[in-house]
Amino acid sequence: MTDHLEGVPYTLLYTDDVLRAAGKLERFLGFAPVDASPGFALFMIGGGRLGLWKLEDVEPKPRARPGAAEFALSVEGGRAAVDAACTRAWDAQLTILQEPVAMDFGYTFTAALDDGNRIRVFARDGNAG
C-alpha cells in the first residue's frame, strides 16, 4: 500500500434527465458517452471521467439541487479555442451564463445544462497565478 491516494478522477453531475443532458453534452463535446442509460452516462475526457447520474438515484441524497458546482475544462489554443467552444455550446443548446471574458486565471465562459449543472471552458492566461 502506498502512502498516498491515487486513482482516475471522476466528476459526477446529478441530473433529472440523464439521456437529455448526455445528448446535449455529446453535441457540445463532439463525441458520444462510452456508457449511457436512463440512470447514468459516462464521458471519457482526457485523463478523467465526467458522469451524469440520475438525481433521484443518488445515495446519500444530496442537500442541494444541481448547479451548485461546475465541471471545468482547460483547453489549449487561447481565446480562439474558448470562443469556438462557446459557439459549440450555443449550437448544443446549452444556456450561456457567462459570455467569454478575461478573468484572473485566464479567458473563460460558463454554460449550463437544462438542470443547472455548469460547464466552464477556459484557457489559462500566461500571467495568471
Automatic annotation (TrEMBL):
Gene3D superfamilies: 3.30.720.110, 3.30.720.120. Signal peptide: none annotated. Pfam families: Glyoxalase (PF00903). Residues 7-124 form the VOC domain. It comes from the Bacteria. InterPro entries: Glyas_Bleomycin-R_OHBP_Dase (IPR029068), Glyas_Fos-R_dOase_dom (IPR004360), VOC_core (IPR037523). This is Drug:proton antiporter. It comes from Jiella sonneratiae.
